[in-house]
Each structure stands twice: as C-alpha cells, then as structure tokens.
Amino acid sequence: MSDIKKIGDLLILIGGIVGLIQGILLVIGMPFTILPGLGDFGVGPLIWGILAILFSLIALVNSGFLKISALEFSNKWLVVLIMGILMYLFSSGLGGVLVIIGAILLVLK
Length: 109
Hints:
This protein has 109 residues and is mostly helical.
C-alpha cells in the first residue's frame, strides 16, 4: 500500500470521526463549527446533526473502517468523495474537507 493511500485513509478516518463528533454536538444542542457553512435553510439543529452523523457513517463504512452492510456501496472512492461534499454542506465543515482530501488522495494512488 502506497504512502499516499495511507495518508488518504487516515484523513478519511479523522474526518469521519470529526464529522461524527460535530453531528453529536449538534444533536445535543452544542454546535461546534470551524469552517463556515451554507446556513441552515430553516432546518433545525437536530436534523443537521442527524444528517452529519449519517454522512460520516457512510464515509467511514465505504472507506473500510466500519462494517455496516446497509450503508456500503460499490464505487468506494466516489461515494466517499460525495459524502465528504455532503458533510461539508451539512454542518460538518472540517470533517468534510478532510474526507474530500482523503478521497482525492485515494484516487491518486
């Protein structure tokens, strides 16, 4: 396994964990943001937190760190890239950016 792939996997792992933490904090009412988002579109923090947790779990499952068969898709790097974009859009800015960079590094392997 090349070093670029290892770095990409590590960035996806860290980004997924950060996304989970930010989602959990949103659900319990303690938002934590580092990068600016797009706004809340009138949706409450509970929905944003649930979406952040769901997208983080999908990114972690498709990168191979978790095993949940219901969330696993066939084209791994593309799904991880899309989940990173959705994580960034839906209140998990730093985690989303890390997942996006990790997915790009997986393609460059």
